[in-house]
Write a structure and sequence with these properties.
Blueprint: E1 2-6, E2 9-13, E3 31-40, E4 46-55, E5 62-65, E6 80-81, E7 90-97, E8 103-106, E9 111-113, E10 123-127, H1 146-155, E11 160-163, E12 175-181, E13 187-193, H2 203-208, H3 229-237, H4 241-246, E14 249-251, H5 263-269, E15 304-307, E16 312-315, H6 330-345, E17 352-355, E18 362-365, E19 380-383, H7 385-392, E20 403-408, E21 414-419, E22 427-430, E23 445-450, E24 453-459, E25 463-466, E26 469-472, E27 476-481, E28 487-493, E29 498-504, E30 514-516, E31 521-522
Parallel strand pairs: 10-11, 11-14, 16-17, 17-20, 20-22
Antiparallel strand pairs: 1-2, 3-4, 4-7, 5-8, 6-7, 8-9, 10-27, 12-13, 15-16, 18-19, 21-22, 21-24, 23-24, 25-26, 25-31, 27-28, 28-29, 29-30
C-alpha cells in the first residue's frame, strides 16, 4: 500500500501498473461523465472524490496526478466501484484525490483531465432545480435550458459549483401506478402520489404518511416507474458534462431525490459519503416498508462542512422538511439538524454559507389551507415551516452568527429574502436553472413580516423584460469572493446576454442583498 499526501487529507491508494490493465478496460467513449465531489470526513477534514460513470462489466480507469512541471503523470492509482444496490446498468468508479493538484483519469484509449479541487475558490457558480419535465423534454434529449446554462457556466471557468438539488424531473413526475388488487380482488393499476414531504396536496396525503401508511414510493415492488438510469443520463449527465469537467461541486439533495423518488440514484451518483473515507460508509435508500411511515422509509444525510481558506460551505439535508406543515416525526429531526449545524459552525473563524434545497425563508402567494401565512392577514405564505420552527427551538432562536448566507433552490424562480435587522442571514433562492418556472410570488418586490421580523423580498418571477423584449427568467447565480467574507453576485443568462439581478453582501441594495439589474423589468403573473 502506497501512502500519498495531498492537500488536506491523507490518501491510501494501491498502485497499479498500466501494462497490466485488463483488456476490458473502459475507454473514454464508454464513460458518461467524470466529475469531482467535495465533502468532509468524520474527523472534519476536507475530502475530494473523483468519480466516473462507465458502462457495466468493464474495468475502471485509473487516476493519476499530473506533474505540472514536466507534463507527465504520476504512478496511476486504482479506483473502486460504488455499491449498486438498485442495480443501475452502469458502474460508478471513485477514488480520493487531493486539493490544489491536477489529476487525470486514464482510460484505455486516452486520459481525461479532472476538475481541480481548489482550497481557495474565488469564482463560484450556483445552480438549482435543473432537470426537465417530461412534457418539456423528450426522452433521450438533454435538459434545456439547463444544458445551455451549464455550458455557458463552464466557459466562465468557475472554481466551484454549488448545486441546490432537484436534478431529476423526467423520472419523478410525482404520480405513479401501483399494481394491487381492486374491490373485486382483481389485479389493477391504481394511480397514487408518492411521498414528497410536504409538496402539494394536504398534510395527510403528501407530507405526513405516518405509520399505518401505506407508504407510497417509486421503489415499491409494485410501482410502475422505479428510479431509472435513463432519466439521470438525460437530466444530469448529458446536460452538464462540460460543467462537471470545469469545476468540482458541492451538492444538496432535493425533494425529487427523496428515497420515494430518485433517491437511489442520488446516493449512487452524487452523495459524498464513500467507503473510501475512514469512518464513513456509502449511503443508500432503505428497502421500502409499505406498512410503515415516512421515517422508516427515509434517510437523513448528516450535516457536513467543506472548509476553504476564506469560506466554509455547510450542507444540510432538507429533503424531508415539510414546507407548510409541522407536527410530524421530522420536527425532532430538524431540531437536531440545526443544533448540530450551530455546534459545528461555532468554532470556525471564516464566514459560513449554508446550502440546502428547501428555502429556510421563502415567500410566495398564499394558497388557502395548503400554505401558512407569513403573518396574520398577510397575502403571502412563508416556507419552510418545519425548519423555521426548528431554528426557533435553538438557544437564541437563531442560526449561529457565523452563518452569513443561506443558498437554496426548490421554488422554481430566483428570489432573495433579506432581513432588515440582520438577525437572520439572507436567503437567496436559485431555483431557475432549468425546470419550468413558477410564478406565484411577490412581483418583483415586497416588504413582509416573517417571524415578527421585517424582511425585503425580490423575485424575477417567470419572465423579465429588457429593451422592449420579454425573456424567460432562467439563469444561474455567479459569485465572486472578496476580502473578509464579502461577495458580489449576479443572476445571469449568457445565452440571452442577460444579467437579471445583482447582489452583494453589503446589504445596501434596493431590496436588501439584491436588486434588479439595470434595465430589467419583471412581468407580473
Amino acid at each position: 500500500m502506497k501512502i500519498v499526501k495531498h492537500g488536506l487529507i491523507t490518501l491510501a491508494l494501491a498502485a497499479v501498473t498500466p501494462a497490466l490493465a485488463s483488456v476490458d478496460a473502459a475507454t473514454s467513449a464508454q464513460q458518461y461523465g467524470s466529475y469531482v465531489i467535495l465533502g468532509q470526513t468524520p474527523a472534519g477534514e476536507n475530502v475530494a472524490i473523483a468519480r466516473t460513470v462507465i458502462q457495466s462489466n468493464l474495468t475502471c480507469p485509473t487516476v493519476s496526478a499530473i506533474n505540472n512541471g514536466s507534463g507527465n503523470s504520476t504512478t496511476p492509482q486504482n479506483m473502486i466501484t460504488r455499491d449498486n444496490p438498485t442495480q443501475f446498468p452502469v458502474m460508478v468508479c471513485e477514488a480520493l484525490i487531493g486539493f490544489d493538484t491536477a489529476y487525470q483519469l486514464n482510460f484505455a484509449d486516452k486520459a481525461i483531465a479532472l476538475a481541480v479541487a481548489k482550497s481557495n475558490p474565488q469564482n463560484i457558480q450556483v445552480f438549482g432545480d435543473t432537470g426537465c419535465k417530461t412534457e418539456d423534454c423528450a426522452l433521450g434529449d438533454p435538459a434545456e435550458p439547463f444544458k445551455s446554462l451549464a455550458d455557458s457556466g463552464a466557459e466562465a471557468k468557475p472554481d466551484l459549483v454549488l448545486h441546490m438539488g432537484d436534478y431529476n424531473y423526467r423520472g419523478t413526475g410525482g404520480q405513479i401506478a401501483l399494481t394491487m388488487k381492486n374491490a373485486k380482488g382483481e389485479l389493477a393499476q391504481t394511480p397514487q402520489w408518492t411521498y414528497d414531504a410536504g409538496d402539494s396536496l394536504t398534510a395527510s396525503d403528501h407530507c405526513g404518511q405516518q405509520a399505518g401508511g401505506p407508504f407510497y414510493s417509486q421503489s415499491a415492488v409494485n410501482a410502475n416507474r422505479p428510479d431509472s438510469w435513463q432519466y439521470w443520463l438525460n437530466d444530469l449527465f448529458m446536460s452538464s458534462g462540460e460543467l462537471m469537467a470545469a469545476a468540482p461541486r458541492i451538492v444538496s439533495r432535493g425533494n425529487h431525490e427523496l428515497c420515494s423518488r430518485a433517491g437511489p440514484g442520488y446516493f449512487y451518483f452524487l452523495d459524498p459519503n464513500s467507503n473510501l473515507v475512514k469512518g464513513q460508509q456509502q449511503m443508500s435508500c432503505p428497502a421500502v416498508q409499505v406498512n410503515k411511515g415516512a421515517m422508516a422509509n427515509s434517510v437523513q444525510v448528516p450535516n457536513y462542512i467543506v472548509q476553504f481558506k476564506q469560506l466554509n460551505v455547510a450542507v444540510i439535508d432538507s429533503a424531508n422538511a415539510c414546507d407548510a406543515f409541522t407536527g410530524t416525526a421530522f420536527d425532532k429531526v430538524y431540531k437536531n439538524v440545526f443544533a448540530d449545524l450551530n455546534a459545528k459552525v461555532k468554532p470556525l473563524k471564516q464566514p459560513t454559507w449554508v446550502i440546502t434545497h428547501r428555502p429556510i425563508w421563502g415567500v410566495e402567494a398564499l394558497d388557502g389551507d395548503k400554505s401558512t401565512p407569513c403573518s396574520p392577514n398577510s397575502p403571502y405564505s412563508c416556507i419552510n415551516q418545519m425548519m423555521q420552527k426548528a431554528i426557533a427551538a435553538q438557544p437564541g432562536k437563531a442560526l449561529n452568527k457565523g452563518i452569513k448566507l443561506v443558498l437554496t433552490g426548490h421554488m422554481h424562480k430566483f428570489e432573495s429574502v433579506s432581513f432588515k435587522q440582520g438577525s437572520h442571514p439572507p436567503n437567496i433562492i436559485v431555483g431557475s436553472s432549468g425546470v419550468e418556472l413558477a410564478g406565484n410570488a411577490p412581483s418583483p418586490t415586497a416588504n413582509v413580516t416573517i417571524e415578527n421580523l421585517a424582511a425585503s423580498v425580490l423575485t424575477t418571477n417567470t419572465q423579465v423584460t429588457k429593451n422592449g423584449e420579454t425573456f424567460d427568467a432562467y439563469g444561474y447565480f455567479q459569485m465572486k469572493l472578496g476580502t473578509n467574507g464579502s461577495w458580489q453576485g449576479q443572476l445571469v443568462n449568457p445565452a440571452n446576454k442577460l444579467t437579471l439581478a445583482t447582489c452583494s453582501s453589503k446589504r445596501n441594495l434596493a431590496q436588501g442583498v439584491c436588486e434588479l439589474a439595470p434595465g430589467i423589468g419583471v412581468v407580473a403573473d
